[in-house]
Amino acid sequence: MSDGAAQQASGPASAVRRVEYPTLVAWSEEVLAYDFGPHHPMSPARLDLTARLCEDLGLFGLPVVRVVEPPVATDDELATVHTREYIAAVRRVSENPAEPEPGRGLGTEDDPAFAGMHEASARIVGGSLAAADAVLDGSAVHAVNFAGGMHHAAADRGSGFCIYNDVAAAVQRLLDGGVQRVAYIDTDAHHGDGTERIFWDEPRVLTISLHESGLTLFPGSGFPNEVGGPHAEGTAVNVALPAGTRDAGWLRAFHAVVPQLVEAFRPEVIVSQHGCDSHHLDPLTNLKVTVDAQREAALSVSALARRFCEGRWIATGGGGYEVVQVVPRAWAHLVGIAAGHPVHLRTPTPQRWRDYVHERYGRNAPALMGEDADTWWRSWEIGFNPNDPVDRAVMATRKEIFPLHGLDPWFD
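Request: output the structure for the sequence above.
Response:
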């Protein structure tokens, strides 16, 4: 069968029904205090522009959407995934940035110390905890914290622009609230190492990370043979993609691994991290993905939550350093999808938003919500091509992981 004959006409996202769920969005301008300084890649402008785009598109005003101010997580809440010693170190640096603790990853080039670091970082965690609480108590079925996704922070140190790990805290909150199985899906260009390590030996959590190979990108980990601890083999899943992977390969890899494992694992809630630094314009990575493909992946995660979790889904942001052309559109699409009102790719960006971008940041904003990209991808069912580096990466993961879930790496 030819590739064309096996084409998924509009990708799996074309089959997604428009379904509205009560949706919580954790957002407040207070979150903009998470600021490593004017020359750091993780500019708070990306959050400012995302929130303003959501507002101007009418997403925050939808009847199903409730925007809540993220609280500052308490030390006890942080201690569910971080050591007390590390929390104390963050507090010290927060109060006295002139005395960094590089052994804890604080005051480094990646994570410069700044006054108020503890509160700003803990507020991001508070947003993801509020999302988990809303899903647990049923006041929301979907929840979004686009300021979150700090997946590099480890239990005892900061790393990769991440001080506290909000997604890990949200997953732990779900477990503590009685959820038996959580699937964590991470599509950031960087390996979700901190979250994976926190749940390395936890059989109730499936972590799936689709990222650029650690051979070419920080943090240098996330290879297929990293499969989880002795009590949880197969619950850490890593798809290490070659530099230069484009939409077709990225989406093919996603659909050759993620749906099959989610179906086998049968989670009760999905938590996802949607770092958009896989984009071809991102200054820090080497993948070549478009906003259109990132939107399709979010639609697919939503569909998995509806199929296996009665809709229960918590979505966060993550990396993404092209703060005008990419981040606001990618995460506004995420909010729209979560609310059951996906924004069409041909939708013009609001004039008020474009004017603000130009006046505030001196840059020209994109005119449309999409890039007119061809997101055609080749279904795995038509076969494995050993000459394709993306296929080799996918097969390496399937060989390591699928048998541990009773799946055939060649056919399932």
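Confidence is low (pLDDT under 50) at residues 1-16.
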